[in-house]
Structures are given as structure tokens and as C-alpha cells.
Amino acid sequence: MTLSIGPHHPSTHGVLRVVVELEGETVVRATPEVGFLHTGIEKNAENLLWQQAITVIDRMDYLSPLSNNLGYVLAVEKLLGLEAPERARVLRVIMVELQRIASHLVWLGTNALDLGAQSVYFYSFDMREGILDLFEEASGARMNPSYIRIGGVMRDVPPTWEEMLRAYLKGFPPRMRQLRDLLDRNPIWLDRTRGIGVLTAQQAIALGLTGPMLRASGVNYDVRRAFPYCGYERYAFQVPLGSRGDAYDRYQVRMQEMEESLGIVQQALDELEPGPVMVEDRKIALPPKEEVRVSMEALIHHFKLVAHGFDVPPGAVYQALESPRGEIGFYVVSDGGNRPWRVRVRPPSFYNVQAIPAMAEGHLVADLVSILATTDPVFGEVDR
Predict the structure, then answer these.
(1) Cβ-contact 152, 78 below 8 angstroms
(2) Would you state the pLDDT for residue 76?
(3) Contact 373, 34 (CB under 8 A)
(4) Which residue, 235, 258, 148, 250, is CA-closest to 199?
(5) Strands of 215-325, DSSP E
(6) Which of these, 121, 150, 125, lies nearest to 319 by C-alpha position?
């Protein structure tokens, strides 16, 4: 029997269609079909000013927009030959690690709900709300905040923000223990995840997987360790690894990643010193509003940046970073103008989706729900 699962189905976690061939209830063949979202984000970015393109790249992985922000911005800063101030670099690390936790919490809640654990869904989203509150306080937006800008960050965090963050960090470990108590040894959870969707290290590498999908198969590769950016070489953290490469290992790897990210945020917060959060170059950065009100030169810079943007020297760069789903890479080309000539993204979800046949074939159709969930795909990124 041939069945079509999706593209409008809650357990496909987006507009994914999987054509499955069944022998009884056993999956003989599973063929993912993508392309239903067709966002065209890369081409949209190429028709916007360098700074404007951040807003569409945000929406590519809408569960981790700040990771998209950072990768693109670092690529453009390489072309410009500039580096953000130290306070901005530390704030970037804090924001993207909080974003990693928030993204994993969405994955955990929806994965658990797919398998019948309703309480975990509410607990996970409640914990995520605290992070979105922090984003809102810093940028004014809860999702797609476009907080990271070329040359630094949008603005400094408010005076009460650090206190808010410390309160969240203090309350996080007991909430994580609560989630682990619900799932780690839950017999239903174990039955639905242990030995399901196994990928060997060789398979994972051959399929081009990165992130938790790769590390759950025992391959020690994390972009933050292999190719550090934003000063990640200064932070102490472990890279969680699995041994069996099944759905349960992918669960454990993501749970441990949240705990490691919490430690990175704590370290970054402790070294956060006062200072500027944007480069001083008025040809790149918008002048402060109070300066625009009294300075004609500042007003001219503001007008030029809003109307024309800035030109970027010709060249091509590739910048990779570790998003919650794996290595996301930005290949950005400039022809010397005020818009990107080419923006090409290497999205981890695209590669993770192509692992579905290898994980699903030979399992029951009911296990396909668990397999799709542990893939953690975001289709704004797949169909970019």
C-alpha cells in the first residue's frame, strides 16, 4: 500500500510530504518530498540592502532566527574587514545560546506531544516563554527580533535585563530535572524511542548530517569547537555525544546541549563588561537618535544609510556556525555594491530530512512519527 503523509499533518513538523510504501504496517520505502513552502529567501536577500537582508534571513529558520542573523552578519563583516565591539560579541553569544535552548524546547515539547506526553509540551513552552521575554525586553520582538546587526547589535540591553537573565538561569535547572523525571525512564517514552531510527556514524557522515543528528551517532563535530567564532574558544563546554544513534540518543544529546548552553550563557554573562555595542563607523552604523537631532552630519549619514545603505568590497566568503539543527553556512558574494550579489545558504534541516528514508525503512508506520520528530526540521530553511 502506498500512503501520503503530509504535507499538512501536525507530526510532519512543517510542510513535508512523505510518500510511504507499506507492507502491512512496516515501512518498505519512505520518500520525502519538499518544496511546498517555496519562500525564496535567498533571492529576496539579494534584492535588499545588506542590512535589510537580515529581516528575511531571520525568517528562514523561524525557531532560531538569531542563529541565522549571526551567520549572515559574520559573513558580511568578513567582507567589510571589521569586527564588532567586545560587548556586542558577548551579547551575541548569550543571545544565540538562549535561542538554542528555546529551539530545543520547542522540539522537546512537540516531540513529546507527538508521542502522547502532553504535560511535557506545556512545561517546555512555559520555559521557552521566559527566553522570549528576554528577547522582547532586549529588542522589542519575541520572534524574528533582527537583534544582531552588521557591526554589532541593534542596541544595548536595558539596565534590568541582566537581572532578568540571572533569575531565569537560576530557575532553569530544577525545571530541566522535572522534564527529565517525566521522560528519562518513562517506559512508554523508552519503547517509542529506543532502537528507533538508528543511524550509524558512517551513515550520518555519508548523508551530510551535522548537529545533534550527527553527534547522537557518536561523531564529535561541533562548529563552535572546530571553527570557533565570537570567542567561543574562551568558553568551557562539553560536546554531548550518543552511542546508539537512535531517537533516544537524539533526545539525550539535545537535553544535554540545553544544559551546556546554560553554562555558556552563565560564563558569558559573568564576563559582560560595559562598552559600545556597535562600531563607531558612521558609514556602516546608524548614528544614535540623540545625535541625529542635533547634528546635520549625523542626519546625512542616517539618510544615506536608510536610502542607499553601504557598499561592501567585492569578494566571496563562507561563514559557518552551529545552529540548533547543525551547521548552517552562509556563502555571500559581493560585487562591490550596496546589495548582496549572491546569498547561498547551507541549511542543516535540508540534509537532516534526507536521512528520513535511512531511519524509517523497516520500522512500523507508527514509528515514523517519532523519526520525523527527532529530525527536528524547519521548512522555512529547507525551502529557502
Answers:
(1) no
(2) 97
(3) no
(4) 250
(5) 315-323
(6) 150
pLDDT for position 6:
81
- pTM for the model stands at 0.94
Q: How many CA atoms lie within 13 A of 149 on its CB side?
A: 19
Distance, CA of 304 to CA of 16 (rounded, Å): 43
CA distance 318 to 329: 7
Give the DSSP H/E element, type plus range, for residue 28. Answer: strand 26-33
Other Cβ atoms within 10 Å of 75 Cβ, number? 25
Mean pLDDT of all residues in 68-80:
95
How far apart are the C-alpha atoms of 298 and 252, rounded to whole Å? Answer: 52
Rounded Cα–Cα distance for residues 338 and 52 (Å): 11
Q: Residue 24: CB partners within 8 Å, gap ≥ 6?
A: none
Rounded Cα distance, 360 and 367, in Å = 8
Across the range 296-321, mean pLDDT stands at 92
Distance in angstroms (rounded) separating the CA atoms of residues 66 and 212: 18
The residue length of the chain stands at 384
Q: What cell does 28 get? A: 518498505
d(CA 43, CA 17): 24
Structural contact between residues 20 and 30, judged by C-beta atoms closer than 8 angstroms: yes
Neighbours of 174 (CB within 10 A): 8
Backbone phi, then psi, for 327, in 5-degree steps? -75, 115
The β-bridge relationship of strands 326-334 and 342-346 is antiparallel
pLDDT, tens only, 322-355: 999 999 999 999 999 999 999 999 999 999 999 9
Phi, psi for residue 277 in degrees, rounded to 5:
-120, 5
Q: Is the peptide bond before 228 cis (omega within 30 degrees of 0)?
A: no
